[in-house]
Specification:
Elements (H helix, E strand, L loop, with lengths): L3 H11 L26 E8 L5 H10 L4 E4 L23 H5 L6 H8 L10 H9 L1 H10 L9 E3 L11 E3 L5 H7 L8 H13 L3 E3 L2 E10 L2 E12 L5 E16 L8 H4 L23 H8 L4 E2 L2 H6 L9 E2 L17 H4 L4 E2 L6 E4 L13 H8 L15 E6 H7 L15 E4 L2 H7 L12 H17 L19 E5 L10 E2 L6 E3 L5 E7 L12 H17 L2
Parallel strand pairs: 1-2, 1-8, 2-5, 8-18
Antiparallel strand pairs: 3-4, 6-7, 7-8, 9-16, 10-11, 12-13, 13-15, 14-15, 17-18
């Protein structure tokens, strides 16, 4: 990690316009009576976030001749993207599509993304710019070291949830990780992040890690250009350590900090059911707290396309879930060798919906467990249970199973497979004993009634005998839950994607509540509202657009 002292020293020496702490003369009070800012560092462009949108933004800005500093709150680069499967929804007729004879064009991509069934809330002008840039974005990735040829192109099911481009391209996993582990971990996002990081560093982009942006400075509270950012150093748990820098941005600021799904107050503006028990995917690697977006709102920025999130929540990926761990989007790849495993504390168990009962805080089933769709498991997991203090949200949700399930599935029941110490996995010799343990979880607001859980399991076992689920119509009724010890694993749905963000022009310039662009302020990726598309495509393409336009407009 680049230390604060080394950053200040290296930035002053390595970037011609960067200035070390204390060397900029500034009056004590500005013309409007506010206390003047003492700048510690100066550059052309500040990019907030070093993930799937921040890396392309920084490279694109650097290609335009700008000096660039990227501020990242993690101690490593990559955000959520480095944990992803690496599928990029970019079509429009790119090189790989042409090679396999696939007919696609920007007009076809535009028609898919703006079709009236699900995407009716899209910002059509912004989407038009996005799709027109897709082929150029593909070329940009290849020019900056991303290698698609080892996997070729994969054609997705156009009607699959969240995939609004018919084509996805996927690079190979970063080879260093494969060499260390001797097997592919399915984190092909590293094949995007690491090449872009290498290219950015080679081109002279500066990275300030373990710092988070807490304030965006503007010439006047709601007028004039943005002038820079206030950043605070954080420790490895993302906690502030009270060391602060003010970085001046001569040309502009680009917000690429990801979504806001980890911020309960923010996300419940759009769906009040998304209370604190629902965890955010990858939250222990990249906290999607929305703080930079809130900083932008404080200086006048508006939100855009909020209907996307009201209609679709923050999304969910039940098929990717892991049980028995707080953040159940660890994908099985967040193993103990990972540098961030100390935050996750467990790998989690592979979800097997047909082998368990799912119960809520009250010990009752709520749905056919084998229907793990967003409209099934996720939607009904959000429904309120009537528990005092939990009037809006419906969780937590627990997967209940027995010793035979453990043997059948090969589940581990201790570290590093599950997080017992954190309160996300419990066991008991009786169902009553098991229920009595659950109040040790911070989100279980009342003790689960042991007699209710026992009656729920006994009723389900009777359905196995008769072959008919009289409550929810489940057809997979192969195994009873009857052999102690009994287990409860955290299986509350993980939240996935932010579809609402800051409102922006087709150039990704942030606008205020009157629709006027804020000079020097740009946004990309999940911090940007208006494009309802899952995944890396919108992040990479809009990051590149924002980086170029921010420099060209200055």
């Amino acid at each position: 990690m680049l230390s604060r002292r080394r950053f200040l020293r290296g930035t002053a020496a390595g970037l011609g316009g960067a200035v070390a702490a204390g060397s900029l003369a500034a009056p004590a009070v500005a013309d409007d009576g506010r206390e003047a800012i003492s700048w510690d560092v100066e550059t052309d462009i500040v990019v907030i976030g070093a993930g799937a949108s921040g890396l392309p933004a920084s490279i694109a800005a650097r290609d335009e001749g700008a000096e660039v500093i990227v501020v990242e709150h993690h101690f490593d680069i990559g955000g959520i993207a480095i944990m992803s499967g690496g599928n990029i929804a970019i079509g429009g007729g790119n090189r790989l599509q042409v090679a396999v004879g696939q007919n696609d064009s920007p007009d076809q991509v535009f028609a898919r993304i703006t079709r009236p069934v699900e995407e009716r809330f899209a910002d059509r002008a912004l989407v038009r710019r996005y799709v027109d840039e897709q082929v150029a974005t593909f070329d940009f990735l290849e020019a900056n070291g991303v290698n698609f040829d080892r996997h070729g192109t994969a054609v997705a099911n156009e009607g699959s949830p969240g995939v609004t481009s018919a084509t996805q391209v996927r690079p190979h996993e970063w080879p260093v990780r494969v060499a260390v582990l001797s097997h592919d971990q399915g984190r092909n996002g590293s094949g995007i992040v690491r090449p872009l990081e290498l290219s950015a560093r080679n081109k002279g982009v500066q990275f300030l890690l373990s710092h988070t942006v807490t304030e965006i400075h503007r010439e006047q509270p709601f007028a004039g250009r943005v002038t820079g950012v206030r950043v605070e150093e954080v420790d490895r748990w993302f906690q502030p350590v009270h060391r602060v820098l003010n970085i001046r941005a001569r040309k502009g600021i680009i917000i690429c900090s990801g979504g806001h799904g980890h911020n309960v107050a923010f996300r419940t503006m759009f769906d009040p059911r998304l209370t604190e028990e629902y965890q955010w995917h990858g939250q222990h690697t990249a906290v999607a707290n929305g703080v930079p977006s809130i900083a932008a709102i404080r200086i006048g920025a508006a939100l855009g396309s909020t209907g996307n999130e009201t209609q679709d929540g923050t999304g969910n990926a039940p098929d990717k879930g892991r049980w028995g761990v707080q953040d159940n989007y660890v994908r099985g790849a967040q193993t103990p060798e990972s540098a961030t495993f100390f935050r996750h504390r467990a790998t989690g168990l592979t979800a097997a919906f047909g082998d368990v009962l799912l119960v809520k805080e009250n010990g009752l089933r709520f749905w056919d467990e084998t229907d793990n769709s967003e409209d099934g498991y996720f939607a009904h997991a959000l429904e309120p249970t009537g528990v005092p203090g939990k009037l809006l949200g419906g969780g937590p949700v627990w997967a209940i199973f027995d010793a035979e399930t453990v043997a059948r599935r090969g589940y581990g029941t201790s570290y590093p497979d599950v997080d017992r110490a954190g309160g996300y996995f419990f066991s008991g010799e009786t169902l009553e004993e098991l229920a009595g343990q659950l109040h040790y979880n911070q989100y279980q607001l009342r003790p689960m009634p042991g007699d209710v859980l026992r009656e729920t399991v006994e009723r389900f076992n009777s359905f196995v005998d008769t072959g008919t689920d009289a409550d929810f119509g489940r057809t997979n009724l192969q195994h009873k839950i009857q052999t102690p010890p009994f287990y409860a694993a955290w299986s509350t749905p993980v939240l996935h994607d932010s579809y609402t963000g800051l409102r922006a022009t087709p150039e990704c310039q942030v606008v205020d509540m009157t629709g006027r662009p804020i000079p020097g302020l740009y946004v990309a990726g999940e911090s940007l509202g208006g494009i309802k598309q899952h995944g890396l495509g919108r992040c990479i393409a809009t990051g590149r657009i924002a980086g170029r336009e921010c420099v060209r407009a200055s």
